[in-house]
Design goal:
40% of the residues lie in helices and 21% in strands. It contains eight helices and eleven strands. Helix 2 packs parallel to helix 3 and helix 6 packs across helix 8. The two termini are 30 Å apart.
């Protein structure tokens, strides 16, 4: 899943981005309200972490503009301010949750996961995707093959998730890079092949088919 962090404290923003990337999310970061509104309006993010005190356009106005334009992306607001009035104002503009600085990183991750889970349930989508004898629970981030649980790293799970969410379709290497890593990734794009190879070894080689020149497709088990 792709997250957008809109936070003008660059050290905090980059620290959050590193931590959330390690959790398996693709993360984009911007440092002002106008750019945050522009990026959030693209509709490619699954959740926005939005600071209130921003240059250009404050978080309240960014949130209100997104909701007025019909964007229902979950928004977690961050602020150094405290008090019931601030919280009420944030929630009134359409934010889904509110966290006051300084906050625990563990709490932030828990809030992010809860909002993403709530969104999936609200949309009526089941978090468990069955593909033959392969079952992937995207909420609990657990994988089962023939009823046996398979231990995957965060990145391995995220790569597999991209294939499971589009059963029968060819998913390109570029799409996997974009969703599992991020736009700023400038390393070796063959990293995707490394993770696919690991997944084949942990699951079953024939489950992931390479479509030459196009990408990868999840095959139904015979």
């Amino acid at each position: 899943m792709r997250l957008l962090i809109v936070e003008d404290e660059k050290r905090l923003a980059l620290s959050l981005a590193r931590g959330l990337t390690a959790e398996g999310y693709a993360v984009d970061v911007v440092h002002d309200g106008l750019e945050g509104l522009h990026r959030a309006s693209e509709g490619v993010h699954d959740l926005v972490i939005l600071d209130i005190m921003l240059p250009g356009l404050n978080g309240y106005r960014v949130c209100a503009a997104l909701r007025a334009a019909g964007h229902d992306v979950p928004i977690l607001m961050l602020t150094a301010k405290d008090g019931e009035y601030d919280e009420a104002e944030g929630l009134d503009t359409g934010a889904d949750d509110y966290l006051t600085k300084p906050f625990s990183y563990v709490v932030l991750v828990a809030r992010v996961k809860a909002l993403l889970r709530r969104r999936g349930q609200g949309g009526g989508a089941s978090p468990v995707h069955a593909h033959g004898d392969l079952k992937v629970d995207t909420a609990a981030r657990r994988v089962f093959l023939a009823e046996a649980e398979i231990a995957l790293t965060a990145k391995e799970f995220s790569v597999l998730e991209q294939l499971v969410l589009r059963p029968g379709e060819v998913v390109s290497k570029a799409e996997i890079l974009e969703h599992v890593w991020d736009f700023a990734y400038d390393g070796d794009p063959n990293i995707v092949e490394v993770y696919v190879s690991t997944l084949r070894r942990k699951l079953r080689p024939e489950l992931i088919r390479t479509v030459r020149g196009a990408g990868y497709r999840l095959e139904t088990a015979p």
